[in-house]
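WARN retry 2 of 3 for item q-0093 after timeout on previous attempt; input resubmitted unchanged.
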Amino acid sequence: MADMTWTKRRLAEILNEDRGLTDEVAAPAAEFTEADLTELPHREREAALSAFARAVRESRDARAGQGLQGEDVPDYKAQDIRQGLRGARAALEAFPAGERSARGDILLANCQCRPLGAPEI
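OK item q-0093 returned
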C-alpha cells in the first residue's frame, strides 16, 4: 500500500480526530489528492468536506448507538470513511452542472461511490 501520510493527516484534520487512523481505515479516501482539494472552489470544497465529516460521524455513531461522548466513542472504520465519501459526492452533486466547477465534475466522474440516499447493490 502506498504511503498514506497525507491522506491520514488530512482525514484527521477534517474529522478533528487525534487518535490516529490506520491505513486500512484511510484507504477508501486514498484516491483523492491534495490537488483535488486545493483546486476545488472554496464553496464546493467546504460543502463536500462538511458533508463528508457529518456522514462519517453519523456512520460511526449509528454503529455504536446514540449519545456517545468522550472515550465511549468508537474508532472510525473504513465503512465510515466510505459513507463520508458518499456524503461528499452528494454535496458536489447538489451544485447544478452548469454551476459546478470542472474539478468538481472530474471528481464526480472518478468517484467510485454512490451518493447518500442511493440504494446499495
